[in-house]
Amino acid sequence: MINNRFYQDFDFERSGGERRRDYRTPFQIDRDRIIHAHAFRKLQSKTQVFLSGEYDFYRTRLTHSMEVAQIGRSICTYLQSRGAPLEPDFTIDSDLVEAVSLAHDLGHPPFGHSGERTLQELMTRWGGFEGNAQTLHLLTETMYQNEAGVRGMEPTRGLLDGVLKYKRLFHEFPAPPTRHFLYDAQERHRAFVFGGAAIPADLLAKGGLNAFKSIECQIMDWADDAAYSVNDIVDGVKAGFLTIERIEQWAAGEGIDAERQRWLEQVIHAIRADRLENVFSQRIGAFITACRLRERKNFMSGATHRYRFELVVAPAVEREAAFYKKMANDIIFESPQLQQMEHKARRVLFQLWESCWRNYVDRGPRVINILPPRVGRLIDAAEGEAAKARRICDWLAGLTDGMIVRTYRRLFDPEFGSLRDLS
User: Fold this and answer.
1) How far, CA to CA in Å, does 351 sit from each of 17, 111, 118, 122, 405?
2) Are 10 and 157 in contact (CB under 8 A)?
3) pTM (2 decimals)?
4) 26: helix, coil or strand?
5) pLDDT tens, N- to C-terminus, the chain (423 residues)
6) Which of 46, 12, 282 is nearest to 157 (CA)?
7) In the chain, what are the domain boundaries?
8) How far is Cα 219 from Cα 75, in angstroms, rounded to an integer?
């Protein structure tokens, strides 16, 4: 195994202080712990765009995460092939990027972004809910949770930093934010990521801290954009949401310029020729080879090479990805079918939350134990309403699409369920 000068002991240090000798590198251990975790397997039944189980060909959170990991590794390989500033013994670790990519969606709740928005609304007074912050919460506190207490997977600093797309705390916003924040209780993890270094005031001002990312996080973020900007289009066409007629109607109201007209015609031609998946697979390749590295200086670049470099993506390719994302958002995500899913998500989550709160927090004279015993004990052991709210939120966010629907039906549908379902 070639010694990689890109990383030092600072990058390998684990949040829990664990030290072990192994035939694997620290980052390979991180990756393996993620792959074998229950939370990772649950992603196979969580919504990416369409409700899990509705079709058998589209992406789930699991297949999306696998695609992001593949693109991330390919970006590492491509950057290495370009030579300087990278060298054979000075390179971005593709195992670390893979681990970051596989972990990046662990915290997302059932019902996709609809579920995330609903949990954020429910948790506003208790410190908020955010998918990326929930991923950090899983990695550091609840991934291997049991009744004996809270326990995460003790990730390396490199992995922890790699999943932190956003680093601004909930209370650091002038008004309660709805997205792109960390929970206030995660300030200690942010401090660990920075090795205790003081954050410059200019980064804290005006949200600059949320744009301050390690190189592995930047690669994961672009791989994520590359994956869903094209794959949402492919799944939308196969599901019948994106038709040539709807695309042309959408484009007519967009004021398409020459550059976007070229991308639009490429999509329409590929649909007509039944070659959309093939064409967009080639675009993934173009998104990978649009990447470059640029050196930078900041308050962390002296401590780790992970902050010494930034990823630069060709502007035209960034605009192309943004064009596909806007098309998918306007035609698919704003469609009545997906808006109906959001309505359902709100109803299910609000009613389950109310039932949990009434029976485990705001206890009346008659308490019904509706949750699995282990979850109920975790809520009971939490001190204060905010901590109990976080435990309820953790349970709801950890359910898959199928699990939350079955739970809802058992509680509210008189004709659904039997004693066997309750085990």
Assistant:
1) 41, 15, 11, 11, 12
2) yes
3) 0.93
4) helix
5) 468 999 999 999 998 777 777 899 999 999 999 999 999 999 988 876 555 455 555 678 899 999 999 999 999 999 999 999 999 999 999 999 999 999 999 999 998 888 999 999 999 999 999 999 999 999 999 887 665 555 778 999 999 999 999 999 999 999 999 899 999 999 999 999 999 999 999 888 877 899 999 999 999 999 999 998 888 899 888 888 889 999 999 999 888 899 999 999 999 999 999 999 999 999 999 999 999 999 999 999 999 999 999 999 999 999 999 999 999 888 887 777 778 878 888 999 999 999 999 999 987 666 788 898 889 999 998 999 999 999 999 999 999 998 999 999 999 988 776 655 544
6) 12
7) 9-211, 215-297+310-336, 338-422
8) 7
- Measure the CA–CA gap between 57 and 282, rounded to whole angstroms: 20
Distances (CA, A) of 36 to 28, 69, 300: 12, 16, 32
Contact at 8 Å (CB) between 76 and 91?
yes
Q: Reduced to 3 states, what is the DSSP secondary structure of residue 212? A: coil
What does each C-alpha distance from 393 to 65, 164, 170, 223 come to in angstroms?
23, 20, 16, 29
Instruction: Dihedral sign for Cα 101, 106, 110, 115, please.
Output: negative
CA distance 222 to 241: 25
In angstroms, the CA 149 to CA 272 distance is 56
Cβ-in-10-Å burial (0-12, 13-18, 19+) of 237 comes to buried
> What whole-number distance in Å separates Cα of residue 172 and Cα of residue 205?
9
Distance, in Å, from the CA atom of 169 to the CA atom of 182, rounded to the nearest integer, reads 5
Count H helices and E strands in the chain, helices first: 19, 2
Cβ atoms of 163 and 104 closer than 8 Å: yes
Alpha carbons 137 and 183: distance in angstroms, whole number: 9
Query: Residue 417 phi/psi, 5° resolution?
Result: 105, 155
CATH assignment of 9-211?
1.10.3210.10
Residue with tokens 């593709």: 94
Q: Classify burial at 379, counting beta carbons within 10 Å of its beta carbon; exposed 0-12, middle 13-18, buried 19 or more.
A: buried
Q: Residue 260 and residue 380: Cα distance in Å, rounded?
A: 55
